[in-house]
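FAQ: What does a ligand-bound record look like?

Like this one, built around NAP:
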Amino acid sequence: MQTLQGKVALVTGAGSGIGRANSVVMAARGAAIIVNDLGAASAQETVALIQQAGGTAVACIADVSDAASVERAFTAAQQALGPVDVLVNNAGIPGGMPAFEDIDEAAIDRMFNVTVKGAMLCTRVVLPGMKQRRSGRIINTSSITAFGSHRRGSVYAAAKGAIISLTRAWAREFAEWNILVNAVAPGRVQTPMSAALSTDAAYAEEVRRRVPLGRRALPEEIAAVVAFLASSDADYMTGQVLSPNGGEIM
Ligand code: NAP
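The answer part, i.e. the structure of the complex:
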């Protein structure tokens, strides 16, 4: 397991779930963490968890879908901790939606603004520094829904599919600056986003039936894959999609 000592990692949507786990796990491996989220309280909780364990972190409050907010907050955070070596585009919103014909335009816009435009805006801010240093890691967060795993949630699936396309296109475009771009496409993960499902007996049965490992992932099990992609163990990986999904998609 390679260390992330001396690296600065920025994780979006890091006040909860997978983003928080990404932050805590990379901090434990030595990275200083810029903890982005919409909410100051949740971001500060993640910062406190990292600091209590002896790590370094600052909060960075910004809506990833708002260019001015991203530019302002990311610039201030980089002044505090240094230029970003690793960007984890993780912020997302729940994908559960009504039948397709009942989904309104505002919900479609919100999904694409946070998931796709958000990843673009965040990447745009850290990219010039990575190019200048000829080094960087960008790790995007897709989902197995991008592979058609779920019966509902086509808007979420389309946005997560776009994340895979962006990952591959950026990997090719940024390779000459030694900026490696990969994605994780998690299966079902126990986080606040999916909290309502935890007490749903039919859902638990579906997990047993469809997931060979018979359970959902813990956020830390996704974070371990992200930390690998951030590390020098993944120096020859770019344009790849790693899918920790308990075998649900093979
Ligand atoms: P989560 O617990 O709901 O965490 C998402 C975080 O993103 C929340 O703190 C949320 O803040 C923040 N966020 C939402 N919109 C934002 C914005 N515009 N700007 C900045 N932060 C924003 O969700 P999660 O389950 O950890 O999911 C993390 C990522 O993994 C998402 O991209 C999700 O699609 C993906 N994923 C999750 C699963 C799963 O089963 N959980 C499976 C596959 C992929 P608020 O709480 O204040 O809204």
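Follow-up question: can I read anything off the structure? Yes, for example: The mean pLDDT is 96.
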